[in-house]
Write a structure and sequence with these properties.
- With 248 residues, the protein is mostly helical.
- The chain folds into 2 domains: 54 residues, no CATH class; 156 residues, Tetracycline Repressor, domain 2, CATH 1.10.357.
- 65% of the residues lie in helices and 2% in strands.
- It has a two-stranded antiparallel sheet with strand order 1-2.
- Helix 5 crosses helix 7 and helix 9 runs antiparallel to helix 10.
Amino acid sequence: MPQQAGSATGSAREGIANAALEMLGEAGLDDLVRVLTPERLATVGSWSPSTVRYHFGGRRDEDGPRDFAFRRRKLALAVLDLVVERTEESTEAAIERWRAAIDDLPIDQDLDGVLRAVVDNIASFVPGASEDDISARDRAYHLAVAVADEDPDAARLLRASRQRQIAAWAPALRAFLDAVGLELRPEQRIEDLANALYALFDGHLLRLRFDPTSRAPWFADVMFAVIESFTAPRGDGSAGSLVRRPRA
C-alpha cells in the first residue's frame, strides 16, 4: 500500500541519516580534510604534486628510502598550526584595541570607548564582518574542535593556543580593573576571569556564525556582569557599577 511504502521510505531515510551521523562521529581530522590532495594543491601554487608529497610524506627510515606517500594528517596539523598562529595574531590586535580604549578612559569612567573596542573585537572574529575575512581560518579551527575530543594532537594545539591567548589577555584585564577601580576577590585569579570571558565570547561568536543578526547591545552588559562577579570595588571607593554605566 502507498502508506506502507511511504513509511518504509521514511524509515530508510532516517536509517541512512543515522548511519551517516555515526560515520561523522568516527571521522578523524584527515577524513574531514579529504579535499586536500597534492594534485589540487599544485593548481594554486608554483609547486608540483611531488613537492607536496615531499613536504607532507612519510619519514625516511634509517635503512630505507624516503616514503613519499601523501600524509593528509600531517598537512591538516600544519594547517591547524597556521590557524592558531593567525588567531593569536588577531588576539594581539584585539588586546591593543582594548588597551588603547583603557588609556583613553575619561576621568568620569564613561565606558563608551571600551564598548566600541568590544564591538570591534567581536567583529574581527566574525567571518565577513571586517576587511580581514577569516572564513577559511575559522572553518579549519572548528574542524579541529570537532575531532579534538579523540585527537590528542589537535587538542594539544588548541589548548596551548588558548593558554597563550589567556596569558596575553590577563595583563590587559588587570589594567582595566585598575582603571575602573575594581580588584579581584581574594579567591579569584585574573586567569580565571580571562577563562570565563573567553567562554562567553566563544559561545557568542559561535552563534554569530549561523545567526549574524544576533548582535545585541546586551552582550557588553553580560561581559561586564561577569567581570563584576569576579571583582569587588577597591577600598578607595572609586568604583561604580559597570553594568549601569552609559552604553555606546
